[in-house]
Structure formats: structure tokens, C-alpha cells
Amino acid sequence: MIIFLIGFMGSGKTHWGKIWATKAQHNFIDLDIEIEYAVGLSVAQIFETYGEDFFRTKETEVLQGLNLTQPTIVACGGGTPCFNNNLAWMNTRGKTIYLITSLPTILQRVLLEQDRRPLLKKMNTAELQFFIEQKLKEREVFYKEASFCLAENELNEEVILRVNSQ
Ligand code: S3P
């Protein structure tokens, strides 16, 4: 069974993906890391050097080229479901879980790692809050098309089993 975790930056996709993959004895894949391997640059460097369109094309290429022959949890990037029909592809290839996270939590978390996230670099806190609010509204349309929508405290072993059995 393949599970794709989707949600905004800072929603805990990688954090929870690793934990639940270990508990459910699934493989774990971080899509951003796979893109970094494929291109040979960090996500921030890819954005700086080649721009977002190039990143989105690579993201789709790498996503659809993943080796998913074993039960796997894939932590996607925040934008993955919103481009190139990736969400529809993920929903046919496995199950998608949207990790719902509140705006204050997202803001608090991304402030800690702003430099690592090319879309957020160089913004002050007020700009960041406005940007996140707008983007979240825009992206929720996609996120809500997930097979399951859960708050991160609802993601547990039982849910993984339920997702796998449906
Ligand atoms: C992005 C989120 C990032 C990464 C890239 C673009 C986005 O992943 O894919 O910086 O568009 O929201 P995380 O959600 O893991 O930070």
C-alpha cells in the first residue's frame, strides 16, 4: 500500500511520515530529497538556479519515477499536489492523506526554517503571514481532494491501517 502525505510547508509531512512508516513497517520516501538526488542540488539551489517551473517539472518526473513496489509512505512537498495533475496521479497510484495544520502552527514552524524554503526566503513575519494565508486558501482546493483529511494528532497506527484497508 502506498500513502502520500500532502499538506502545506511545516505541516509535519516528513516528521510524521518517518514515524508512521517505521511503525507500520513501510518504506519512507521524502520527495524533496529524491529531487535533490536527481538534480544534484538542494531544493533552494534548484529554485535559485533554474526557477520554479523547472522544479515543478522535476518534481512530477521524480514522483512518477519512484520505486513503489513495496508498502511506502511518501512525504510530498507542499506544492506537489497543486501542479501537473500530480494529485490525480497519486490518487490512482495509492492513497493521499492531507495533514491539516493551523495557520499559527505553520507560521511558527516555517519561521524556524525560513532559509531552507525558497518560496519564503527574505520575507518578514507580516509578509510571511499574508503569503501563507493566501497560498493556503489557494492550495486547500487541491489538498481537500485527498483520500483522507486529518489533523496531525489524528494520524496514528489505526488510521494507517484503516487507510491501507480501504
Ligand atoms: C514547496 C514546499 C517544499 C519544497 C519546495 C516547494 C511548496 O517542501 O518542495 O520548497 O511549494 O510549498 P516542504 O513542504 O516539505 O517544505
Report what the structure shows.
This protein is of the alpha/beta class and 166 residues long. The chain has a single domain (2-165), classed as P-loop containing nucleotide triphosphate hydrolases (Rossmann fold, 3-Layer(aba) Sandwich), CATH 3.40.50.300. It is 53% helix and 14% strand. The chain contains eight helices and five strands. The chain has helices at residues 13-24, 31-39, 43-50, 52-64, 86-93, 103-112, 125-143, 157-165, and strands at residues 2-6, 27-30, 72-75, 95-100, 148-151. Strands 2-3-1-4-5 form a five-stranded parallel beta sheet, with helices on both faces. The longest helix has 19 residues, at 125-143. It is globular and about 45 Å long. It starts with a strand and ends with a helix. The model has no long low-confidence stretch (mean pLDDT 93). Bound molecules: shikimate-3-phosphate. Residues 9, 13, 32, 43, 77-79, 117-119 line the site of shikimate-3-phosphate.
